[in-house]
Structures
1.
Amino acid sequence: MTAACPAGKYQPKACQASCVACPKGTHGDATGVPGTSAAHCVQCAAGQFQPTDLGEAACKECAKGTFGAGVGVAQTHYSYCQDCAAGAEQQRRGRTACENCAAGRFADQPGTIRCHACAAGQFSEGLGERTGCTACPAGTSNPTTAQVAPSSCAVCAAGRYAPSAGRGTCLPWAVCNAGNFNRDPSTTAPGQCEACPAGKYQGSATENAERCFEWSYCAAGQMLAGQGATLAGECVRCAAGRYRAEGAPAHSACAACAAGRFAAAAGSESASACTACAAGTFASPTAGCVPCADGEHSAAGAAACAACEFGAGWHPWGGCSKTCGGGTKQHRRVVVTASAAAQAQCAQTESSTCHVNPCEGTRVLCKHTKCSYSHKDGADFGAKRFAIQVSHHHVDAGQHHCKRYASADGMTHECHCYCWGAAAEAGLTEEIEDATWGMSAMSVLRGGND
């Protein structure tokens, strides 16, 4: 019994021991009808090949990423299948042609099975042989893959930059420390940190510090304090002795009053607030108008006192302030400084006591060492020590005497007396009655002793 030839083989003769294999480039008819002639062997379809002559029932398909064009002898070898060119793909087997990469995709190598998506920061537009993607220009970015148009590249937002083409994200500008600002940042450059110029500040560290801010503005009579590269400062009133006028340079300090002048009130707004210090004083920048020290003088509006110039000696003594009971007298030192104001300021006086004898009606305790009693006939009653009451007008220095008076016994008495100096000077008074002698008035001399 004979068997039918399998697909891929045929036998035109009857009762043969074997079948004939289909040649390379062909395959057996797949209809299931046994092959009885060479017509049973069918040429491989385009996109397929048959490299063997063993009588295969089917041809092999070109692999993914390749294609087979046309039919013929070439289908007898693997080389029949060609790689897809760069910019194209083939995702299926046994294809006769490759497909160009779609927009947003590319194939940079031959034989690509599936085109690659354009990376973030890139795009490709339209159909065509895309061997690569177009990079977004510097200063823009595109965070999404497989973009198909230039519009997908967005300009970097404020405070960010893209230094080169093809970036998926923009980078932040340079972070400058407080007191600095970012000079010339852009969408393509991070900028450069520089210190704030005079009169400006930046209080925070940030990548958005494109500029520094002006210090606080102060009105007339005020000045800025506490300002710096990181602080706006605050306005404080000008101190006494200083002023700041309207229209003064911005952020300028309060000006000092001119030499010899002083503004007593804080917050002065013009130089007119500074008044001249009076004669005999000088203008201290902080303490105001200060009196000159002893031995110094100044004219009005002086910034400093000058030393007085004295001559030799003193002027004569002036009169005594009292005629009795202790007065004072003065004389002045000779001043050679020319001006009348200086003469008055430099005047130096010296005082002394005068007319220290008691005035009439002063009672002073006196003690006597000698009293002689002269009788009308010249009898001497000898010395007797006693105390008397004195009431008499003053006597000049260097004099002393006692009044003569008549007592009840008809005798005339004369006493030479003295008073204790300390008692007299202190103004001590004591009324002493001497009933025996009935004495009346006595003259007192401080220091008298006979």
2.
Amino acid sequence: MGLLAQLAQGDSAQVGRAMKIRADRYAIASASAQCPACGRWTQVVSLVAPERHERLLERDWETVAERVSLFYVTQLSAGVRRRLATLTPWYRQPAAASQPGFVNHCEHCAHPLDDHDLHCEPGGAFQPQTLAEAQGIRVWEIAEDLDAEAGGCGHDPAF
């Protein structure tokens, strides 16, 4: 599906029970969002599983044809965590134990940003509504294994 058709259709998101995802590579999508605490613009990232990644259903792995952007990420393999710590230190586990998982933090004030706002709201950093918004998202391909657990994913993202 082309980018303009995806933008017209909207990105379908799945949120619910945590899903295990694995792939032989992944991507890091980078955009910017306004921090609700300090009002400044900050970098944010999303992990993207490639086409033909695998998802665990009950006890069997199923191949998924489309790319998915992951959010509400609760677990990452050690290699992915190391790569993120190096490239995107603002995407990390929050200091508060009441917020499990990995989230984006404002580069300026360290306030955690809500994945729902970034991934599910129209016009959110990873829910572009215009071609210009989609073109503002940069994607870096990482040729390393991805093992993750996430509570949500955006199917066939428009970036």
3.
Amino acid sequence: MPGTVSRLFVPPKGSYFLFGPRGSGKSTWLRHLHPDAHWIDLLDEGRYQRYLVDPSLFSAELEALPRGACVVVDEVQRLPALLNVVHQKIETRRLRFALSGSSARKLRRSGVNLLAGRAARRALHPFVPEELGTAFALAPTLEWGALPIVWGADDRRDALDAYVQMYLKEEIQAEAVTRNLPGFARFLPIAALFHGQALNVSALARDAGVARTTVQGYLQILEDTLFTFPLPAYEARLRVRERRHPKLYWVDPGLVRAVTGDRGPPDADSTGRLFEGWIAQLLRAYRDYRGICDDLAYWAPTESRDTEVDFLLRRGRERVAIESRRRGAGSRTLPRDSAPSPTSPVSNVASWSTSAPNGSAPRRGSRCCPCRCSSRSSRAGLADALIPSVVTRAAAASVPVAGNRGTVRRGGVPACAPRSGGRGGRRRSSRSRRADAPGS
């Protein structure tokens, strides 16, 4: 692996917060972005204790800097009270701050000064394929993850084990997040088993053997320390009721395997789950880095257990539905013959499937969802942002769309083949629908 990996994160012009899980490379990349900045590392225990006792020392240190200087405060969540001073120096000295943190827990408390819009909020994620280039391979990514601290280690298994212990010691015990550290440690592997599943807190509490309210607190800890994130269910005023439980995803497949104690390469069942979670994390990363979408959700009506859209992206009035699956695995996308109703969130959307063929990079799929796409140009904006960014090794040529008279091209989405009603397609005859039925 190269000594320095160029990250996709680009800092804003003004002051900003930069959040990311421990080991995601925040400090390294900030030193690269701001080589001449005044650096304040709150992991330095001596400095941390001095500022804790007397915050005026922090103010005096900033006062000595030239007007308009750049200041990096690393692990700012350890002393949120310093943000009052940061606010003052932005106003009076025009200092520019880069404030990094591996936890948002203390910063979410009421009364913490979040600089009232004077600092943008940004995120740094584990490596994505575009950053790693030729060094990227899917199989080791699903086995060990893509956290920089693990990716560059000589022994990735030992690095992952040490990372989990560091998390329990430094993020949980040292910050006094929970008084029951053994109970939280027992909860972690059970929470990892829910990776990629709709979150049922009662079921998780029953499996963990703790109270439901305790599990809710533990889940909030995982989210606050940036280990997990929820994927909400798509909600709209529809005729069909959706499942409203969010899905739980971990930010890195290596963490899922580490906390569950998995050894050796993942088996076929776990590979599909890890791959789906990795795609979810990729979409989050490109939403933050490139703004490919405004919202990210999944869609699954309660009336059908066989109908689900893994990821539904929205940008403005555009939507894209994505199905992630291993090549050769069963699909959970909408059946071809069951066209959605006009009120369905997957009406008038484009769709691609991301496959994981034998450890290679994800490839642009060869299926379009059964939607009523009215025109090619109407979907070009979000499609052009999504495909080149997320599926970085996609073929530039057009890809045949199975079961439809058209192709999905980089420049946009074709009008769908004839559908039953709706704009952009004529009503299909009963003979045509029978011909497409399975087993016909």
